[in-house]
Write a structure and sequence with these properties.
This protein is mainly alpha-helical. Helix content is 79%, strand content 0%. The protein has twelve helices and no strands. The relative contact order is 0.16.
Length: 241
């Protein structure tokens, strides 16, 4: 952890997203190689607990990130320009809360739908507030931003393990029509490569949003996203062999 702290302290602000993507990719690939995805998916309570951790880390990370982000950077875009991402996050968090309640058997309680809506909306609100400049910014804290980035990083890795890796496992070894097409038809590999770009971007951009808010207009950001997606897709192709 101290090594990561030193790295984030030394990198330029423009390179923060690049280091985040590199560390995220390295950790995600390592975990997917060492831990069978079925270990997470087959145990509903484990998946539920991980989703709770994901949401908590997103909320706490957003709270910690707000002041360092705005006190460090003066080139941030207007928050209103990202209204579509706010809506997507709001819907995603509500869905996740509902999923957690089903995994943990909490959906048996009356009014769980209202609880899911309120909780998911509250977490989305933390993200939106983090994009809005505070009226009285605090002095910049490298340590605080490091902790925020670390929590966001862990939450992104968790989401990858639960959703993307389970999807990849199904595509490479499942019995669905898509899985059969991928094993039999090379053209299907190219077709589904483009089909699953959007799910991947939603899975990665939304947890990483507070960094994306800062580097979305940088072409290198999109090159890194593409490289990570291609590498993940190559994992699926190699598993087909």
């Amino acid at each position: 952890m101290n090594i990561l702290h030193d790295i984030f302290n030394k990198v330029k602000p423009d390179s923060r997203g690049a280091w985040f993507d590199f560390i995220y990719f390295t950790i995600s690939i390592t975990i997917s190689s060492l831990i069978p995805v079925t270990l997470l998916i087959d145990n509903k309570h484990v998946a539920g607990v991980l989703l709770i951790v994901f949401l908590l880390f997103q909320a706490i990370g957003a709270l910690l990130k707000r002041h360092p982000l705005h006190s460090r950077s003066t080139r941030l875009p207007e928050p209103v320009n990202y209204w579509l991402f706010y809506l997507l996050q709001w819907a995603l968090y509500i869905i996740f809360i509902g999923l957690i309640m089903h995994l943990m058997n909490w959906h048996k309680f009356k009014g769980y739908e209202v609880g899911a809506f309120v909780t998911g909306s509250s977490i989305a609100l933390f993200i939106i507030l983090a994009c809005i400049p505070p009226k009285t910014p605090k002095p910049y804290s490298r340590t605080q931003e490091f902790i925020a980035d670390a929590l966001i990083l862990v939450s992104a890795v968790i989401l990858t393990q639960i959703f993307w890796n389970s999807l990849a496992d199904e595509l490479s070894s499942g019995s669905t029509r898509i899985a059969r097409d991928l094993r039999r038809n090379p053209v299907a590999i190219v077709l589904y490569f483009f089909v699953f770009i959007l799910p991947f971007l939603l899975m990665y951009i939304l947890p990483r949003f507070l960094l994306f808010f800062e580097d979305a207009k940088n072409k290198k950001t999109w090159i890194r996203f593409s490289s990570i997606y291609i590498a993940f897709w190559l994992q699926i192709i190699l598993a087909l062999a």
